[in-house]
Amino acid sequence: MATADATFRYKERFGEGKARTYFRRVGDRAVSSVGLGTYLGDPTDAVDDAYYETVRAAVESGCNVVDTAVNYRHQRSERVVGRALEDADVDRESVFLSTKGGFVAFEEDRPENPGQYVQREYVDAGLVDADDLAHGSHSIAPGFVDAQLDWSLANLGVDTIDLYYVHNPETQLDVRSAEAVYDQLEATFERLEERVAAGDIRHYGVATWDAFRVPRDHDHFLDLSELISRARSAAKAVGNTATHLRAIQLPFNVYMADAFTVDSQEGPEGAQSVLWYAHEAGLNVFTSASLAQGEVLDGVPEDVDEKLAGDTPAQRGLNFARSAPGVTCSLAGTTSPEHVRENVAAGDHEPLGADAFDAVFE
C-alpha cells in the first residue's frame, strides 16, 4: 500500500517544476492532484497494451493516483494496472491505488447472454441473492462487495488497496427505499471496516454519479451526513476506534459543476454544496469525468478559459476541476501515454484561487 515515506519521496522526485499545490494530502500520504482513470476503452488486448504503457507513463512522470474498478473493461483494467505497476520504475508504496465494487464483472469479455451468466456465476454460485440485484447487474450487499474486493486484490496483485469504493450505490434507489439502501450500506461498511482491520484495504469511500450532486428531492439523492453517521456506527460495531470512510468520488468539470453549484447537503448552517460539505467533514474528494469524457478537449467556454492557466484545453480543464474547494485529485481517463503526460503537466500551472474560482459562477 502507499506509505507516507514513499509518497513524500515520490513528491520530492517529481515535484520539481510543479506548482505549489500540485501534491495534496490523503491523511499522511502525498498524492498528485491529477490522477489516471481506467474506465475508457474496449475489452481488447490492444487496449490492454495501451493501458499498460499509459499507467507506466503516468506513475513515471508525476501522477501517483491510479483509479480503476473490478467491472471496468470486464476486469481487464484492474489486471493491466497491476501488471503496469509491478513493472514501473516506481515503488508500489509510492502509488495511491483505488478501485471499486458494486457492479457485476464479466470475465474479460461480455458474454453472449449476460443474464444467464449472472444467474449462473453469481446467483447460483451463492455470491449474491437475486433480490439484492438492481437491474440484474448491481449490488451493494456486504457479501457481494466482500467477494469483489477479493477479486480486485487478486486482479491487481497487491496485498492492500489504498482506497476501496462502494460503486454507485444510488443505483439501488431504483428498486428499494432510501432507508433500505442506508441500512445495506451500513452493513457493507461494517464488512469494509473488518477488511481495514485485516489489512486488505487502508480506507474506503463511496463513488457516485448522481447521488451527492442532485437536489434532495431527486430519486437518486443520498445524504452524505447519513452515510457518515452509518460509517461511524459500522466502525463502532466492529470495535474500530474511528471510521475509515475517507473519500467520495463524483463527476465535476467545467460543463458539469453541480457538485459546487447545487446546495444538496444540509450543513450546520444550512444547505450547502457537497464539495463544501465534504471538505468541512474532513473527507477527500476525487473528481471523475474531469474532462467531461472528452468534451473539454474541444475547448473550455471562453469566459472561463481566459481565467485558467495551462497550455492546452485539457490542462486548463483539469486546472478548473483542481480549483474547486475540497478537491484532492481530478481523475482523467486516457489510453495514451502522450495524453497522460500532457495531463500531468497541468500541474506545472497554479489552479485558480478561491476568489477567482467563485468569480467564475458570478
Automatic annotation (TrEMBL):
Which residue windows are coiled coil?
175-202
Entry keywords, A to Z: Coiled coil
Q: Does the keyword Repressor apply?
A: no
User: From which domain of life does this come?
Assistant: Archaea
Domain (NADP-dependent oxidoreductase) ranges: 34-212
Gene3D superfamilies in the record, alphabetically? NADP-dependent oxidoreductase domain (3.20.20.100)
What protein name is recorded for this chain? Aldo/keto reductase
- Organism of origin: Halobacterium litoreum
